[in-house]
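Help wanted!
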Amino acid sequence: MTSPHERSHYESWDQQRGAEIIAEHSLQEGATLVILHALQEAFGHVPEPAIPMIAAALNLSRAEVYGVFTFYHDFRKKPAGRHVLKLCRAEACQAAGGDALAARAERKLGIAIGNTTADERVTFEPIYCLGLCATAPSAMLDGRLVGRLDEQRLDALVAEAQR
Amino acid sequence: MKMRIFIPGDAAAIAVGADEVVAALEQAAQRRGLPIQIIRNGSRGLCWLEPMVEVATVKGRVAYGPVAPPDVPSLFEAMASNGPHPLRLGLADEMPWLKRQSRLTFARCGIVDPRSVEDYCAHGGYKGLGRALSLSSAEIIAEVVASGLRGRGGAGFPTGIKWKTVADASADRKFIVCNADEGDSGTFADRMILEGDPFVVIEGMTIAGIAVGASKGYIYVRSEYPHAVVAINAAIQAARSAGLLGLRIAGSAHSFDLELRVGAGAYVCGEETSLLESLEGRRGLVRAKPPLPAHKGLFGKPTVINNVLSFAAIPFILDNGAKAYADFGMGRSRGTMPIQLAGNIRYGGLFETAFGLTLGELVDDIGGGTFTGRPVRAVQVGGPLGAYFPRALFDTRFDYEAFAARDGLIGHGGIVVFDDTVDMAKQARFAFEFCAVESCGKCTPCRIGSTRGAETIDKIRAGERVAENLAVVEDLCNTMKFGSLCALGGFTPYPVMSALKNFREDFGPAPTRLEAAE
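Answered by r_m:
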């Protein structure tokens, strides 16, 4: 989980590999989230063909698995951009100037938060609390945490994401 | 003799450059040809001083901070010679901000190596379990009841009573579940203890397992805490290797093992029944109560589900006795609370203290006001579902009942400070908006009410029929408060109504209408 979540690190979907991952975890009690996490860790998203495979392995309906998949903010239907920049938008970061930083990042990236740039380099997402509330505002770039953000540090972070 | 240097591996320290400081120190040591040993401790919780570096001396650990990589060459010389340095803070144990605290739960956090069972034991760890193993189930529970410990997740339900209910239930399997889904903004105590002293949580859960007759426990931690995930997994492995988890723990007849599960970005899963659904592999839909989790919890079995801080308080209580814990605090709030000072605050961090300090003491005196230097205008206590307090209420004592009496809650102990640039109508809108995004969707007041609330606040902010729309918001809040299934919909009215009541000037003209409606 601490490794940088860069797109280039992910495998492309392979049914055999997907089946292996599902089989590895399917004996755990209540394994659905565990499997979805493992698939996303491998492929960078949860590929659609995996849903019926999970359902079959866990003796659930497709609808149930799809329901779980879509309930949680973390799981992706398609791969994110090459870099993922998450900016905390919760109260402690708001109090420390987070709103202005979010607007600034949106301007620099040319997209609204919650989107991916047209060149697919940067996915810019809100996150509701990284637990760094006394060193706010904070962000996470591909799994790396950055606190005490100001305009300068944010600009550097955005530039790094755009590379 | 190797110089022993402590640099926190805590996420907050890493976020402000602790890893870079480690690299710079290693380089400096190599250049000087001086051998050093670097220990990645947890954070002591003085977040404005992070990365705070400590070096062991004969007199104790000397602290320096906040350290940036360019400071390291001169810092290294100062540490090697025990000489002066602009960043020198003196002996860590003598720092006033730490000395004013009563650290029972966080006694070891920032001091020990969080990956070492030996270090944990050398600092009094596992003595609580040792005593628990010499007691009967009923005696352990009596101790927890007598301590007066109440659920530190926010609900404040007596922990011992919950344990007794599970102990009294008969079933083929029972479970211990640790709620580490610390989603409230302004709170980070769970993260800090899991990263800085994970064994205290494991020990507390183990004692719970013995007390109620459960042999399996789960820690459900949020995915936003990747460093905590690593720390817990390492600690579980270490405890197993030491014979402190698994079959016949510590040579006793009891077996107890733990599994870590990671959430997936759903705030509502911090609600206990939603968390259980998620652990079972389902959508995090809140369950109606009854049945209580203590009767029918995880996989339909009797389950103790407690917050990280509740479990982390247990080893002290068992080791030192219920009275030693209950001697702290006021009224029905016994013991200590790890309070988290956050947001726009000068001295932010974790301050563990007995219940009873006033909000003003915490914010102005201990927290030092805002870091922007502007006046404090509002503080939100207890996370996104907590009320906004103005300065006029700063005499409120930090205590479950005192906050409830003023239409607030202490929740998980987070205090977020805002200066006078805050727009309280915007904050009220955010509370609705957050509830709309995070609602599990099961009950109507929360699912629909949150969206309608955000829309109505937009109208008020646009100056559209302000008085009527303020009445709509108030009515909506009442429906949500009394009609929602869980605290997400039920408590969203706290930030909204407190903003309206205490900061009405931010909601446009016609402020008299609400008073007329009351």
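OP: Thanks! One thing I noticed: Chain B touches chain A through 62 residues (CB under 8 Å).
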